[in-house]
């Protein structure tokens, strides 16, 4: 029976990963060996990248390791850009990214890059739980995060300066939000940076005038996730159901990448993740399944 992660567990894992801890029990030798019966592997693989995708990768690894006890799947949550850099320099077998790989990144890789869409995620815009603002439009979000709107009273809130939080520039979440919400304009110069989804949520929780954005799996009762409206439409809450239906306007694909078709342990791991059982885990950790 698969074990559902609690929000506390997700937050703890992500904070550890943001601090640079490698999660897993592998020896990092990146070697594999078929057992004589042909049905089991021994060895390890490295999976590196997005802190957003990490709960999925970790959930898959726990079940996959249990079913293949001679295999270690070593997970490192370092950010999408760092994961793809590791794929480029050959230090990871699988890169996790909450954005698409860029053409200039592909050009640095010897071989064809294979993309695996492993789930979907709604990006939730979060504020302090006591913030009186009830919803924001995409246009208002753009103006807030680029620094054109600087006081909550201008969007129906209290007379208080808005404290903007964003992710660090190596984050796929940062790049997706910048492209899809800011329309590639720059973040406000005084925006504060958070190293991970969990760090972002923790910062918002402690600052009454703050605003930020996190993957849906990192939203809990300690913060307030605002409904968002696209142009000419009513505000929509960031929920799995609304993301599935396409009503919520900030939804993205979560990806894993390999150089060439995955082989050996990496193939078995990804095959499991894309199976019904693997996609059950995607839902259990708070994201949207793709099967």
Automatic annotation (TrEMBL):
GO terms for cellular component: plasma membrane. Pfam families: PBP_like_2 (PF12849). InterPro entries: PBP_domain, Phos-bd, Phosphate_ABC_transporter. One of its GO terms (biological process) is phosphate ion transport. Coiled coil: none annotated. NCBIfam families: ptsS_2. The complex is composed of two ATP-binding proteins (PstB), two transmembrane proteins (PstC and PstA) and a solute-binding protein (PstS). This is Phosphate-binding protein. The lineage of its organism: Bacteria, Bacillati, Bacillota, Clostridia, Eubacteriales.
């Amino acid at each position: 029976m698969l074990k559902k992660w609690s929000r506390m567990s997700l937050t703890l894992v992500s904070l550890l990963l943001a601090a640079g801890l490698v999660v897993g029990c592998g020896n990092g030798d990146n070697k594999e060996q078929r057992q004589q019966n042909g049905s089991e592997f021994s060895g390890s693989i490295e999976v590196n990248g997005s802190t957003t995708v990490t709960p999925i990768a970790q959930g898959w690894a726990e079940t996959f390791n249990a079913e293949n006890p001679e295999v270690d799947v070593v997970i490192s949550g370092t950010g999408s850009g760092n994961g793809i850099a590791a794929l480029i320099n050959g230090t990871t077998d699988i890169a996790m990214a909450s954005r698409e790989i860029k053409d200039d990144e592909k050009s640095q890789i010897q071989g064809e890059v294979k993309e695996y869409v492993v789930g979907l995620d709604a990006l939730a815009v979060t504020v302090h739980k006591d913030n009186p603002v009830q919803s924001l439009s995409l246009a208002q979000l753009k103006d807030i995060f680029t620094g054109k709107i600087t006081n909550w009273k201008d969007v129906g809130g209290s007379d208080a300066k808005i404290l903007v939080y964003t992710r660090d520039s190596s984050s796929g979440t940062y790049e997706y939000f910048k492209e899809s919400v800011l329309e590639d304009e720059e973040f406000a110069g005084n925006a504060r940076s958070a190293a991970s989804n969990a760090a972002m949520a923790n910062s918002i929780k402690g600052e009454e005038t703050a605003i930020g954005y996190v993957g849906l799996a990192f939203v809990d009762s300690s913060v307030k996730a605002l409904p968002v409206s696209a142009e000419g439409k009513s505000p929509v809450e960031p929920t799995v159901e609304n993301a599935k239906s396409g009503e919520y306007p900030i939804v993205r694909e979560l990806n894993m990448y390999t150089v060439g078709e995955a082989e050996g342990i990496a193939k078995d791991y990804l095959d499991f993740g894309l199976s019904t059982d693997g996609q059950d885990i995607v839902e259990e950790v708070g994201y949207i399944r793709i099967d």
